Amino acid sequence: MRCAVVLLLVFAAARAAAVVTDGLLPNGNFESGPAKSELVNGTVVKGGKAIPKWETSGFVEYIESGHKQGDMLLVVPQGAYAVRLGNDASILQRIPVARGSYYAITFSAARTCAQAERLNVSVSPESGVLPMQTIYGSNGWDSYAWAFKAKLDVVELVIHNPGVEEDPACGPLIDAVAIRTLYPPTLSKGNMLKNGGFEEGPYFLPNASWGVLVPPNIEDDHSPLPAWMIMSSKAVKYVDAAHFKVPEGARAVELVGGKESALVQEVRTVPGWAYRLSFAVGDSADGCKGSMVAEAYAARSTLKVPYESNGAGGYKRAVLDFVAVRDRTRVVFQSAFYHMKADGTLCGPVIDDAKLVGLRKKPSARRLML
Ligand SMILES: *[C@@H]1O[C@H](CO)[C@@H](O)[C@H](O)[C@H]1NC(C)=O
Ligand SMILES: *[C@@H]1O[C@H](CO)[C@@H](O)[C@H](O)[C@H]1NC(C)=O
Ligand SMILES: *[C@@H]1O[C@H](CO)[C@@H](O)[C@H](O)[C@H]1NC(C)=O
Questions:
Q1: Which H or E run includes 9?
Q2: Ligand 1 midpoint to CA 42 (Å)
Q3: Is the CB of residue 287 less than 8 Å from the CB of residue 341?
Q4: pLDDT for 248-263, tens place per residue?
Q5: Which domains does the chain possess?
Q6: Mean pLDDT over all residues of the chain?
Q7: 75-87, pLDDT tens digit by residue?
Q8: Left if phi > 0, otherwise alpha if psi is -120 to 50, otherwise beta: which for 70?
Q9: Is 108 in the pocket of ligand 2 (CB under 6 A)?
């Protein structure tokens, strides 16, 4: 009997230990590649199991950094190799996870020939189509985040290029696929906003000095930035203290989408009560210069915070007082303008350390009538 219990414990421990750890997935940067015999015409992967730890389908190419395509030199951000997903091609990896937990996937992608490329990232039954038409990263690469809730003990992550281009070899390059467990944020004392400092979020690839784009998500989706929704049509950029300057803690959000992206959190409020939203507005020291205006909205109140950025880091604090009109209030951050760095990449003001507190109770109607 005791023996069986011990065995069970051993199995349980083994299973727990088998769950994926935060960081690059096994061969997540594609550094271990197919044998020469499994490549056709130099780059085209033959068979579905040629790349260790991955399964591929469709026109998948194994690309070495420095590979020339026409007059374009392809660079690879992590290590020396990446894969290219041609028309209708996909890569798949099975990941042992903790059922019921939330995870964020981070991966890097670069557009090659087509103007508007998209990638469908899925962990059945959830999927998200990430558009890649706007260039945010100066070397052509951007990192993207997408989140899912694990419904099984082993999930299949699929990155699929649904595109159909004239040239079947056209399609995005993929590199550095990583994962991070997300912990549902709890309320901390003195703040009605969850994850107000943006400390909880997707994995940062160690060498990705261009941050991680968090694409727009709809309410039902799981957000890679727990408690926050990205609304409207453009992504926001998640930045870390290792590569950028952030006002508080280790992480913050750069509003790179102008009025086309909004960072939103909904909180419970009492209609008629007064609340105070305070936050930091700054720049991430990524060379984004200019007269910026960060906007905050809550209930019927708006605050425009001008911030003069010299692109070298810095921040100021701002406060928005508002009176709730409903039992739920959306706190919204936006950038009034688009900004562009000298290299043509989109940038904008940084938001961090958002706090919401109740100010005082509404005088009760009965007392007013007396
Ligand atoms: C290899 O190149 C030849 C000649 O360009 C082409 O006909 C063939 O379809 C290519 N094979 C693959 C698998 O792409
Ligand atoms: C990051 O960059 C350094 C220096 O270029 C390199 O030595 C290291 O291998 C890189 N790490 C990864 C994970 O690519
Ligand atoms: C994305 O992929 C998933 C899984 O294959 C699929 O169910 C979903 O319909 C796809 N979405 C689009 C828009 O193609």
A1: helix 2-18
A2: 10
A3: yes
A4: 999 999 999 999 999 9
A5: 19-182 (2.60.120.260), 217-369 (2.60.120.260)
A6: 89
A7: 787 779 999 999 8
A8: left
A9: no
